[in-house]
Protein 1
Amino acid sequence: MAGLRDIRRRIAAIRSTAKITQAMKLVAAAKLRRAQEAVIAARPYAVNLKTLMAHLLERVEEDRLPIWLRQDTGNGVLVVVVSADRGLCGAFNTNVIREAERLITDKFSEWHEAGKVRVMTIGKRAYMYFVKRDYELYGKHIGIVNNPNPAVARDIVEEIVSGYRAGTFDRVEIVYNEFKSVIQQNLKVDTLLPIPTDVDPVIEILKRKRKTAVNYIYEPSEQGVLDVLIPKHLRFRMYHVLLESNAAEQGARMTAMDAATENAHELIETLQLEYNSARQASITKELLEIVSGAEALKEGAGA
Amino acid sequence: MGKPFVLRIMTPASVAYDGKALSVTCPGSEGRFQVLFNHAPLLATLDIGRIDVETEDGGNIVFATGGGIAHVLWNEVVILADSAERPEQIDCARAQAALDRARRRLDHPTRDVDVERARAAMHRALNRLKLAGG
């Protein structure tokens, strides 16, 4: 059995760890609230932008969007992985990295073997993973995931679009965690480019309701509007991904730290019991020694 | 007096206006234009400038915008703006700092300075300062 002092030391160490994890949990909870508010604040814009895109995509001739909608020409794929900068958030990073790797080795295995898969890492964890392995990196963004803003999203999208325009790749997939609830993150794989033309159910319904064709006035021109709208759409998609991932990360960290704190308390409880019984044992032993010592003395005196 | 229509002005970070309006005047990239009740379906790109809203009770609301897209369809006007702030919401110190930074970049362009972007940043800052001041 461990010595009394060792147990006391362990209890103290675990107690201070519990304090740290508790503090991290509270910090994550505060950050989560802000992140959630940002996700909610972006929703109306998201819905309206999506509706507008759908309006346009069903109306505009495909040849007006040669670049954005073009089909795979076999140039390759860019996989964008959005992770966190730091760990201590459960399986958050592992999940997204594993999903990205699965995507590359399963769905894009042919491209991968031909060396046509590139990886863009957002967040330090993804970078640290992919840089050490046999992947061709296309840009990295570190230190931005906990402060998502439109300007950052714009930089990322510009980098992606320049590679897409240059034909370095003709397909862009984003792998990220979507915020479902505090304790749940959804892994998502979204196609950023070419812009998916299969519209989602909400828009399907909308389309059916509005059968009548509308003749829009375009200012400055149909092409001009598209040239503005499409980059906006891409930037916003990226911004939205960053918001979701950040909220998911804070949720994951909060849950992980909560579990850690709970485990620490459990450990302390067990150790405390062990400590008590060790202390009791040593007292008993001491008593025995005293008693037997006294007995021995008595016997010595009697003889 | 004109009839009211539905107007929504939103940015990626917030909904700046959601309600009825009698008219809205936007800084279109081809020049300012006004939307009234029963306007024809329109899709227009917006420049940096000011959006003027005439509310149902006859009041006027001004927004500084960094550009965007206006969508008019069946008396529903949706403006998707990069930014939309009321003059009293404008952070003048921040706008001034942005202006100084953009000017510095334009005066001494290095290889990694994106001149187009610096110019746009300068225009946005000037627009904010102008509207916040008046």
Protein 2
Amino acid sequence: MRKFIINLFIISSLFSLVLLAVPYATIPPNMATGYDNGFNVFPLDSISVDILFVGPSTLSFGLHQETLLESGFDFFSFGLHAGTGPLYVLNETKRIGRDARITIMSPGYPWIFNPQEGDLVPKLLSHSRQTFPEVLSNYGLRNFILSKAWALAHHLRPWHSYYNPSKVRDGFRWSSDIISRRGVIRTQCKPTNQWKTTSGKNLERIEKRFADFEKAYDLESAIDFSFWRQHKDQYTHLLPTPMRASDLADQYVDVMDSLALELSLPLLLAPESCIFPDSLFCDRFHLNLEGSIIYSEMIAHAINDSPSVD
Amino acid sequence: MLFQSFEFLVFLTFVFGLYWFILKRHMQAQNLLILAASYFFYGWWDWRFLGLIVFSTLIDFVVGLKITAASNQQSKKAWLGLSLLVNLGLLGYFKYANFFIESWIDAWSYLGISSNVSSLNVILPVGISFYTFQTLSYSIDVYRGDIKPTRNLINFAAFVSFFPQLVAGPIERASKLLVQLENKRIFKYEEGVAGLRLILLGLFKKVVIADTCALHVNDIFANYADYSGPTLMLGAIYFGFQLYGDFSGYSDIAIGTAKLFGIQLMTNFKMPFFARDHGEFWRRWHISMGAWFRDYLYIPLGGSRGGKWMSIRNVMIIFLVSGLWHGANWTFIAWGAIQGALFLPLLLAGKNRRHTSDNIGEGRWLPTGREVLQMTTTFALGTIPRIFFRSDDIQDANSYIIGMFHDLKFPDMHRTPIPYIFALLLVDWFLLKKFKIESAFLRYLIYGFAALLILVHSTINPAPTFIYFEF
């Protein structure tokens, strides 16, 4: 027995050391610091809301909580990383969607670029869960200990920078694109980012993707958005994502219009009205605080004017 | 409490410490600890259902004593009847009441007649199929005179509720487990190490393999109408490995945990995907359930003694009942029927016992081409009933199978589990061949790597439970 206990102790200790060393060696510090900032993590099963927003991270950044709550509705924003793909997002939200009276789906343009990106899901979840264990819905003691270990690892390596500085956005957290949150906007999301992707070459590439999408667009590719099974008293609207004026806005307007027609779903906002000046964005896709307030005011008005609202 | 949870690690450490350090010299106190720990373990899910285990335990304890004390065969039969009535009654009510009521309503509505019967909202207690079978086998064994009844209620209750195998087996017999609980146990270093190894293997199978497959299986089965045929084929293959990793992983952890307490449980899986035909598969898959049905249903029904037709009838009964045992759904009955249909050709040809030994790839490191073909065929055929096992209803299963042969586009996604499956097959093959790594350093390096994989995957794969808990 003694030998067994001693050996077990030695092996466990060695393993614990390795365990501490692994995150030390692999976790970038700007992720580990995210732990201190706190998150709003909701147990999905317990959520029951009037309005459910479903879409990519443009929702996480684009919905301003106070502005929307002023409209008098309880809402929940399920803005996930666009790389998870629409199928995954819709599947994940099915449970909440059963109770929501109004579902507002925001088909992000990354989905339109590449609607079959669903296989990124395990990778993204893995990434988020390893980095921010607290985003797990069944958050437990083990995760707490692990997250502490990772935070420690960060403190031991503060000089290391994982991302190219030009791609780091202030206040951006990977997990915010993964987890569901109730319309929380980060005030520190400032338009300081210099990450430019709309160079001439990129514009050409994106233009081609739009063209490809429109060419291949048919009911089969639309099924991702349309399989939502609703009850009799439930309504669904399409919400155009905010678009930078400099970023192929016209093409996106066309795609949104044809999508709404194909799915026979009303658009909550006119796509044209969702084209914003670049100064309201903190990066290529996501609105900054000012932009999110404007966008959310438009949404709140539209909801109040919607025939689905009593 | 889940085996892969932090709570279980704390619980196991605490019980292990008490068992070997404080109560080492007091066998009865050790059994009392096992009983208390088992009830705590079970109550962690839902303490309300503890009453069912206690009730079932008391009934069979008394029945065992009464059968022995009974002066004539009729009284013995009556007492056995009571045990059957109570255990099967509990199982019937909690597991099948809704199924039969809903099937009744459906049958009438099919004929255009509305029925006034309404379905019940019955919650299925975790592991009820396992522990009722265990207590039932005790009463039957006492009735048959195979074992003597115990007069110690603590020992008996510990046998019924022994926490490592309480909720998902292996389904133990009193002649093996109860006997061990009634004798002094000694800690052996080799057994302790073997136990830890099995726990590690089980966690690897569950957390790394099964839960990785589950991520993809859930998506493919939930959206099968949207996927191409080959993706559906992949989904069906993944589910086979998910089921195997999940269930055999649980069994390995259970057996390993029991070893830490000086108790041996029966082997439940023997590398079933290396089976060369369906008969061999069932001698390697869920062995404790197969043995239970053989001893308490197949043989009493006449087994193979009444000629070919009697054998066929009995085999079909076994498979159908084992399907129903898995769950109250027509999909499980279809699963059983197809399993029976796959087994029958072997029975009719008298080849169902062709492969009864571990002689796969005998005398060589790799299986022969013929064996590979046999294994692949057995696996491929076994995939069909597994689709029924996984589907929500028969209609879904049929559509899924039809969908497998449509739109034959090679899948460009859902390929992540493939290397995991190869890893599992490799591990199983090494175990089958009893491959030993002589270098202790290399051995511990592998254990450490496996533990790391388990830890990392436990944060990736959000699979909260084991599949067989639902049965």
